[in-house]
Each structure stands twice: as structure tokens, then as C-alpha cells.
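Q: I'm writing up a methods section and want to include an example of the input and output format. Could you take the sequence below and give the corresponding predicted C-alpha cells, formatted cleanly so I can copy it straight into the document?
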Amino acid sequence: MAASKTHPNGKPKKTRKKSAEAKAKNLSALDAAAQVLAETGQPMSCQEMIEAMAQKRYWSSPGGKTPASTLYSGILKEITTKGKESRFRKTDRGHFTRI
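A: Here is the clean output for your methods example:
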């Protein structure tokens, strides 16, 4: 329990601070995919990215049945919404690379 703030009833409220190391481990699937693609430097399919992210312990599925499909959808959404500012680029059918 690191810092304390005041609760509306006047009593001190205890809060926890996350360390920089703890924050770094909490990557989203898209952030972890971008990091894996940057490290490999070659196009990968979503299934390959999911396996690499789990192996390097960047991100693992919290129990979803189709994490590769969810990642694929998220990457496509980022490409369509951000356009040229997207971190990803589609190179081939089902394969992406990091810009």
C-alpha cells in the first residue's frame, strides 16, 4: 500500500501503485502483436503471432476460443480506422507486417 488519498467520508483511502515492470507486462493483444512483428521483421499470420506472443510471454488468451480471429479483426480495424498511421500493414492474404 503506497499512497493514501482521502475518501469522501474524510477517512484516508489506501491505494496501490503499479510498478513500471508490472505495467510493461500488461500488453494488449495488438501491442504484443506489434512487438512480435517488430522483433521478427517478417510477415506473420495471426496464428503465428498468437503462438509467438504466448511463447515470449507478452500476451496469452484469457480463455477465448478463437484468439487468432479476434487478433485478425483487431488488426484490420486498426488499419481501416488509422489508415497510414496504423502500426500494421497487410502483405498477403492473412499475413501482416509491422510498419
